[in-house]
Every structure is written in structure tokens, then in C-alpha cells.
Amino acid sequence: MEEKPVDKELILKELANFQSQDCKYSEGRILGSMCTEAHPFAKEVFCKFLDSNLGDPGLFKGTKSIEDKVINSIGKMFSLDNAYGNIVTGGTEANIMAIRAARNHAKKYKNISNGEIILPRSAHFSFKKAADMLNLKIVEANLDDNFKIDVNSVEEKISDKTVAIVGIAGTTELGLIDPIDKLSDIALENNIYLHVDAAFGGFSIPFLKRLGYKFPDFDFSLPGVCSMTVDPHKMGLAPIPAGGIIFRKEEYLDVMAINSPYLTVKKQSTIVGTRLGASTAATYAIMKYFGKEGYTKIARNLMDNTIFFKEELKKLGYKLIVEPELNLVSFNHPDMDTKQLANELESRNWRVSTSSCPVAIRVVLMNHIKKEHLKELLKDLKEIY
């Protein structure tokens, strides 16, 4: 820190220089991110609530009412009439909260300590953080030939230490949806908490169903589902950070509650204490702004681009890992090493990412990627081929 104040214009110039080094979604060359540029209206609302703190809801009753409405609205999107939960920083925090709820619930009602969580190899790395923080053991279930969780493997790995089973609705690497309906049956039969990580798919699957896409049930319509993660800052077009954790029952929040005696509300279940209300307000605003019709239109556009891209890849001779279920395409060159292909694309200023299971180039067709960007990408892929 400087000894004396620095002129505002100099500070802004310095910050602009730093910001110029950042990639920009609007350029359409960020191919591997599951985030995108927030809608301008959501940004506008976000700025109006910068001074709000949902960690002390007694002081910000209006903003807390907004959060309650948002959680209820998302709950209804997932077939739950009375939802409980919070808007948090993202899928990672939401997943940690879910696993914490499962652990505490199992400890209180089943006297399980040193518990285990069963999750697919395709699960997001946030569950490794959760296991590390909560002193839980990860038991990895196998994937089937379609890279989805093998339900037989799940059944085999259940023990008297199992506190949770995790299924994914939109895997990070391939965008696939696990058979949540079968996991629900297993969870009910064994009285085990089931969490669904729909951080990626949560704001698209319900709207794709409206368009006639066929997906098995994945939400609270299944009686075994206890909680769900969803990220409004992905396909919901809310500003970062905006994740959501939705619980079927209030008792899952209660088992995490910690006394907060000096605040206006005397118990707190979230991990973060000071919570920005701006994310909640922006999520509320953008959900009302788009409505079901608007999000259905977005989902259609993203899948149209996905279908266009994967069909053109096939024409060029590239090999798809799987047929896309959501707006994510993973592929390889038939003869070129994946790392080499990634380097070739990076040299052409495409920001790509590679999956690890299996190793492949992954392109996430988010809202900032337009058809003209895909045509440029396909032109480069043709030259590389």
C-alpha cells in the first residue's frame, strides 16, 4: 500500500492494463468454460445490491425475502413445492454444503462417524474438497460403457459407513446425465442421502424437456433425492458468483446450523458467513426477466449450435467421444495426440480444455459462442486435420 493517496484515474488506468490481459467471453474463443458473460440486466441489478449481506438477514430483510423467493422458484423448477436452501458462491460451495448436510444427518440419526461418500469417477473435483474438509472417505463407483455411473457398482460399494450417494446431471467433462432415477431407488432402499449435482445441467434440462428432448427424471420428482446443486451463473446468465443449493427438507439445514449469537439471526447453516446479496438479487431479476419461455429459447439455441458443431466435426473426420446430451461436445483427432491437438488450437488463439476421463478436447457451447465463432473454429480444425 502506498503512503499517500493515488489519483483515481491512475488507479483505473492500472486496472485497465491488468484487465486487458484477461480473456473475454465476447470474443467467442473461450471454448472450455462452463461460465459465460452475465446478462446486462443481471449486472445492473447486481450493482444495486453490493452493500447487502445475507449473512445478517435481520438487517437485510428485503434481500432475504428475495433469496427465499429465488430458492422457492428454483425448487419448483425441480419439482419441489417447498424448497429450502441458499444462493451461494457456486457449485463447489453448494456441493460442500450438501455433503456436510449428509454427514451431519447420518451422524445425528444413524450414529455414523468416519463416513464414506459414493460418487462416480466423473464427479466434479469439488467433492474431493468436501471429503478433505469433512474427514470423509471417497468411494469411487465405476462408469459404464457410456461414461455414466454404473449403478451395479454403486450397490456393491454401499457399506454401513455410507453417508451419501452422488449423481451428476451434466458431467463436467462430457455433459452426461447419470441415471438418477435408479440411484434414487438405491438410496431409498438403503436409507442413504442422495445428492444430485446439476450445476451444469440444472438451467437447461427442464427447458430442453419443454422442447421435446427426452431425459429420465433427475430431480425432486424422485423421492430419493435429498438435495440438488444448480448454478445460475452458468446457463442462467446470472453474474458470478451465483450457485444454488436446494434441500428437500429443512432438517438438512438444521443439522448444519451453528449458533451466531451476535447477529440478528441466531443460527447459520451456510459455510460462508458474510454473503453478498447481489448474486441473489441478480438471479431473481434474470429469472423473472427470461421466464420459462426465455430460458427455453436459450436452451434451443445452445443445442442447435451443439448439433451443428458435432455434425460438422463428423464431416471433417473427427471422432466424438459420445453423442452430446447437453451443450458440450468432446472429440479427438483419429491420429493426432489430444495434447498436440490442444496445442494447435491454442496457437490459433482458441482457449480449449481437455477432459481426463477419457482424454479428449471438450468444447462447452455456452451463450457467448455464436455460430460464426464455430465456423471459424471448424475452419481451423479443417486446416489442422
Automatic annotation (TrEMBL):
Enzyme nomenclature, EC number: 4.1.1.11, 4.1.1.25
SUPFAM superfamilies in alphabetical order: PLP-dependent transferases
Biological process annotations from GO: carboxylic acid metabolic process; coenzyme A biosynthetic process; methanofuran biosynthetic process
Origin: domain of life: Archaea
InterPro entries from the UniProt entry: GrpII_AminoAcid_Decarb, MfnA, PyrdxlP-dep_de-COase, PyrdxlP-dep_Trfase, PyrdxlP-dep_Trfase_major, PyrdxlP-dep_Trfase_small, Pyridoxal-P_BS
Cofactor(s) this protein cannot do without: pyridoxal 5'-phosphate
Name of the top EC class for this enzyme: lyase
GO molecular-function terms, A-Z: aspartate 1-decarboxylase activity; pyridoxal phosphate binding; tyrosine decarboxylase activity
Reaction(s) the record says it catalyses: L-aspartate + H(+) = beta-alanine + CO2; L-tyrosine + H(+) = tyramine + CO2
UniProt pathway annotation: Cofactor biosynthesis; methanofuran biosynthesis; Cofactor biosynthesis; coenzyme A biosynthesis
Modified residues (N6-(pyridoxal phosphate)lysine): K234
Keywords on record: Decarboxylase, Lyase, Pyridoxal phosphate
Family matches, as Pfam families: Pyridoxal_deC
Family, similarity comment: Belongs to the group II decarboxylase family. MfnA subfamily. Belongs to the group II decarboxylase family. Sphingosine-1-phosphate lyase subfamily.
Function description: Catalyzes the decarboxylation of L-tyrosine to produce tyramine for methanofuran biosynthesis. Can also catalyze the decarboxylation of L-aspartate to produce beta-alanine for coenzyme A (CoA) biosynthesis.
HAMAP family named among the record's database cross-references: MfnA_decarbox (MF_01610)
Protein's recorded name: Probable L-tyrosine/L-aspartate decarboxylase
Organism annotation: Methanobrevibacter woesei
